[in-house]
């Protein structure tokens, strides 16, 4: 190879290599307790060494060699957990009410800017990875690219691009046509994948936020669901299905859908089937529970929306309890911005707290916010736990979250890829 390269080019390459080495940074987080998300004893008074973007060593203080030029991040007495992951976020979310009225004529450019600001906010909530199951106008892809280039800071983004709605269904608009039938849906799925979507989002039943069909109604046909799943999987993309319906979910699970979103009315039988098939559930329980009602009042949700939300809440809660009992794979997601103020904390921390209230141990809830989403994304080799070789996506909290999940309410330090974005370590 090299004999085809002119000498000048070799020089340029050598200089590039040298400057890359000079840029590499070493940091050491010192003095914290490292939580073992596999349930083992925490490592106290630890050193976590970070070379550039990844963790290079974890051990007791005194047992890890800290290079002389390493930047020391003091986290004395704090508890380190993996950066959290929120698997159901819409950066451009608009909910019915005052917000919808205020943003009625939002241009795609203005939407992209709002999405960028919302992405940055996720980091402050300790969320270093998000999955976007359905946005508009592809601002998500622009934000993702800007973050990956390093032009802007925000969480790691896995996106489904625009969601696939059917005419008259959830997410559609009265009188307008959307993708219908296997061929149109396959085409739309491929378009999103070609723009960089690693997930495809289908809306297979009704939902809370629109009047497009009842929540329990299986609106998308088995032929349509099967076609999308087959087309997506051929490209290595995964499929998320918005579903509150047992009937629709039954078809989706058979078709090989990777995750069921919300799952409002799912019964024990279908949850058992999901457990057997390894289908993921992303509960988004904050959207329907009493403790988070002030959020909806604050954004001026109309009466019909609050009614629909409250009437769904009891079934949704029972479903979550049953899913936990049955051991269904659960990955945390909120359907609100990760950082959205809720019940004295943010949506992500409150969602995890709800999981414990519904029957998970604190450790299970912490896993649902870290390693489980990483597994759902197929990214567990890079993120989801604090291990040598993985990205240094690290959050520090002030107490042990495996004893009390409310520890997630007090985020002290947020690091993503070795860079510190929030540091209240000595608060
Ligand atoms: Zn959603």
Automatic annotation (TrEMBL):
- Top-level taxonomic group: Bacteria
Q: Where is the Amidohydrolase-related domain?
A: 80-420
Which named protein is this? Amidohydrolase family protein
Native organism is Parahaliea mediterranea
Show the PANTHER family listed in the entry.
Answer: ALPHA-D-RIBOSE 1-METHYLPHOSPHONATE 5-TRIPHOSPHATE DIPHOSPHATASE
Q: Which residues, if any, are the signal sequence?
A: 1-24
Instruction: Name the InterPro entries on file.
Output: Amidohydro-rel (IPR006680), Metal-dep_hydrolase_composite (IPR011059), Metal_Hydrolase (IPR032466), Metallo-dep_Hydrolase (IPR051781), OTAase-like (IPR057744)
- Please provide, alphabetically and separated by semicolons, the GO molecular function terms listed in this UniProt record: hydrolase activity, acting on carbon-nitrogen (but not peptide) bonds
Q: What is the lineage of its organism?
A: Bacteria, Pseudomonadati, Pseudomonadota, Gammaproteobacteria, Cellvibrionales
Q: Which key words tag this protein in UniProt?
A: Signal
Tell me if Signal is a UniProt keyword of this record.
yes
Does the keyword field hold Signal?
yes
């Amino acid at each position: 190879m090299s004999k085809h390269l002119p000498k000048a080019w070799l020089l340029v390459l050598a200089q590039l290599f040298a400057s890359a080495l000079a840029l590499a940074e070493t940091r050491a987080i010192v003095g914290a307790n490292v939580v073992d998300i596999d349930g083992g004893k925490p490592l106290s008074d630890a050193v976590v060494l970070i070379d550039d973007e990844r963790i290079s060593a974890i051990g007791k203080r005194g047992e890890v060699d800290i290079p002389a030029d390493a930047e020391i991040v003091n986290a004395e007495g704090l508890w380190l957990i993996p950066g959290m992951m929120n698997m159901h976020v819409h950066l451009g979310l608009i909910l019915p009410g005052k917000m919808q009225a205020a943003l009625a004529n939002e241009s795609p450019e203005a939407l992209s800017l709002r999405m960028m600001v919302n992405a940055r906010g996720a980091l402050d909530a300790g969320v270093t990875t998000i999955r976007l199951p359905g946005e508009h106008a592809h601002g998500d892809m622009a934000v993702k690219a800007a973050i990956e280039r390093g032009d802007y800071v925000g969480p790691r983004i896995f996106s489904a691009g625009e969601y696939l709605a059917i005419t008259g269904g959830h997410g559609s608009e009265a009188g307008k046509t959307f993708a219908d039938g296997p061929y149109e849906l396959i085409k739309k799925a491929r378009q999103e994948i070609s723009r960089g979507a690693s997930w495809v989002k289908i809306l297979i039943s009704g939902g809370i936020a629109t009047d497009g069909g009842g929540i329990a109604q299986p609106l998308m046909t088995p032929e349509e669901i099967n076609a999308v799943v087959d087309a997506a999987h051929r490209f290595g993309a995964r499929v998320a299905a918005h579903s509150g319906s047992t009937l629709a979910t039954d078809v989706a699970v058979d078709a090989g859908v990777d995750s069921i979103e919300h799952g409002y009315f799912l019964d024990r039988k279908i949850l058992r089937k999901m457990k057997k098939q390894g289908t993921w559930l992303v509960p988004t329980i904050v959207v329907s529970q009493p403790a988070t009602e002030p959020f909806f009042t604050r954004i001026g949700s109309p009466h019909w929306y609050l009614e629909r939300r409250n009437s769904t809440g009891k079934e949704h809660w029972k479903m979550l309890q049953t899913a936990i009992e049955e051991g269904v794979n659960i990955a945390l997601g909120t359907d609100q911005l990760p950082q959205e103020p809720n019940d004295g904390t943010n949506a992500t921390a409150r969602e995890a707290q709800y999981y414990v209230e519904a029957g998970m141990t604190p450790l299970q809830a912490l896993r649902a916010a870290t390693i489980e989403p990483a597994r759902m994304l197929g990214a567990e080799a890079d993120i989801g736990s604090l291990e040598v070789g993985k990205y240094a996506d690290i959050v520090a909290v002030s107490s042990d979250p495996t004893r009390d999940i409310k520890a997630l309410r007090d985020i002290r330090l947020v690091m993503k890829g070795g860079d510190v974005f929030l540091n209240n370590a000595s608060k």
